[in-house]
C-alpha cells in the first residue's frame, strides 16, 4: 500500500492487490452474505441479472475493481 | 482534472476530492491502484466501502464509491484526463437505514444504465411504488452528496467546507463531458 497525505486532505491510499481483495470480501460478506471470490464468480456468470439494481448488489459491484 | 501523465491526471482528480472529504471526515480514501490506463475502470471508495459516520447529532452515515478511467484527451491541457465511469453514493440514518442513494452503473447488468436515485426505508416514503422506483437524475458529484448530507443534518468538521466544495465542484463541471 502506498499513501499520499498532504495538509487539508484525507489520506489517499493506493491499495495493493491483497488489500483490495480484502476490502471487496468484507463488503460482499456484509451486504450479500458471500465471499468476495464468490461474488466475482457469480457476477461474471451473470447470476445477478435482474438483481444488479438492488442497493446491496449495486454497492458491492461498484467495488469490483478492488477484487480483480 | 488533466495531467501530463496518467498518474498526474489521477492526482488532479483525487486531490480536490480528498480536500472536499477532509471537510467532513478523517476516513481515508482508498483507490484500487488506479493510476494508469486500463481496459477496465478503476475504483475509489471512502473507507472500506461501508458507511462512514459524519459529524453532528444526527449521526448520518455516508457511503461514497466511484469508478473512473484514465483516458487520452488531446484537446485538454493534459494530454491525459480522468473521467468518472460510475458511482454509488448513499446517505443513511444513525440506524443504517438508507435515506437516499445515487446510482450510476452504465457497465453493469441492470436495465437502468443512466444515473438515478433510490429512496430507502430511512426516507419513510409512504408511496410504495415511489420507494421502489428508479428516479431519473443527472450525473451527481460527491460534492453535491456532501452538501445534501449537510442539509439533512450532518455537520462539517472544518469551517471552510463551502469554499472547498465550491472549488472542487467547479473543477468537476469544467472537465466533465456530460451531465
Spatial gap, N to C terminus of chain B? 16 Å
N-C termini distance of chain A: 16 Å
Low-confidence blocks of residues of chain B: none
Task: Give me the number of helical elements of chain A.
Answer: 4
Q: Overall 3D geometry of chain A?
A: elongated
What is the mean predicted local confidence, pLDDT of chain A?
88
- Percent of residues of chain B in beta strands? 25-35%
Structural class of chain B: alpha+beta
In terms of quaternary structure, what is this?
Answer: heterodimer
Topology at a glance:
The complex is a heterodimer of chains A (68) and B (179).
Chain A: E1 2-4, E2 12-14, H1 17-32, H2 36-44, H3 55-61, H4 64-67
Antiparallel strand pairs in A: 1-2
Helix pairs in contact in A: 1-3
Chain B: E1 2-3, H1 6-22, E2 29-31, E3 42-46, E4 52-53, E5 61-72, E6 80-92, E7 98-104, E8 116-119, H2 128-132, E9 135-136, H3 142-151, H4 161-175
Antiparallel strand pairs in B: 1-6, 2-3, 3-5, 4-5, 5-6, 6-7, 7-8, 8-9
Molecular structure report:
The complex is a heterodimer of chains A (68) and B (179). Chain A is 53% helix and 9% strand. Chain A has 68 residues and is mainly α. In chain A, a hairpin with a 7-residue loop joins strand 1 and strand 2 (12-14). Chain A contains 4 helices and 2 strands. Chain A has helices spanning 17-32, 36-44, 55-61, 64-67; strands at 2-4, 12-14. The model of chain B has no long low-confidence stretch (mean pLDDT 90). Chain B has helices at 6-22, 128-132, 142-151, 161-175; strands spanning 2-3, 29-31, 42-46, 52-53, 61-72, 80-92, 98-104, 116-119, 135-136. In chain B, helix 1 (6-22) packs antiparallel against helix 4 (161-175) and helix 3 runs antiparallel to helix 4 (161-175). Chain B is of the alpha+beta class. Helix content of chain B is 26%, strand content 28%. The two termini of chain B are 16 Å apart. In chain B, strand 4 (52-53) and strand 5 form a beta hairpin. Chain B is globular. The A-B interface holds A 3-4, 6, 8-17, 20, 23-24, 26-27, 30, 46, 48-50, 52-53, 55, 58-66, 68 and B 11, 14-15, 18-19, 21-22, 25-35, 40-43, 45, 48-50, 63, 65-67, 86-88, 90, 98, 101, 103, 105, 108-112, 118, 120, 134.
Amino acid at each position: 500500500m502506498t499513501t499520499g497525505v498532504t495538509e487539508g486532505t484525507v489520506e489517499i491510499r493506493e491499495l495493493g492487490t491483497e488489500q483490495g481483495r480484502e476490502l471487496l470480501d468484507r463488503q460482499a460478506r456484509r451486504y450479500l452474505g458471500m465471499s468476495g471470490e464468490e461474488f466475482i464468480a457469480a457476477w461474471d456468470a451473470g447470476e445477478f441479472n435482474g438483481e444488479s439494481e438492488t442497493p446491496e448488489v449495486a454497492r458491492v459491484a461498484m467495488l469490483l475493481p478492488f477484487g480483480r | 482534472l488533466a495531467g501530463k501523465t496518467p498518474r498526474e491526471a489521477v492526482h488532479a482528480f483525487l486531490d480536490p476530492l480528498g480536500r472536499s472529504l477532509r471537510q467532513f471526515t478523517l476516513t481515508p480514501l482508498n483507490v484500487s491502484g488506479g493510476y494508469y490506463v486500463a481496459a477496465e475502470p478503476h475504483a475509489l471508495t471512502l473507507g472500506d466501502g461501508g458507511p462512514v459516520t459524519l459529524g453532528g447529532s444526527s449521526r448520518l452515515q455516508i457511503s461514497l464509491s466511484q469508478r473512473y478511467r484514465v483516458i487520452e484527451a488531446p484537446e485538454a491541457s493534459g494530454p491525459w484526463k480522468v473521467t468518472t465511469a460510475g458511482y454509488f453514493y448513499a446517505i443513511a440514518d444513525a440506524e443504517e437505514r438508507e435515506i437516499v442513494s445515487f446510482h450510476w452503473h452504465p457497465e453493469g447488468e441492470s436495465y437502468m444504465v443512466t444515473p438515478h436515485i433510490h429512496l430507502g426505508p430511512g426516507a419513510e416514503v409512504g408511496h410504495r411504488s415511489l420507494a421502489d422506483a428508479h428516479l431519473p437524475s443527472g450525473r451527481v458529484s460527491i460534492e453535491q452528496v456532501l452538501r445534501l448530507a449537510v442539509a439533512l443534518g450532518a455537520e462539517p468538521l472544518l469551517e471552510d467546507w463551502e469554499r472547498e466544495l465550491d472549488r472542487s465542484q467547479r473543477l468537476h463541471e469544467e472537465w466533465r463531458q456530460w451531465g
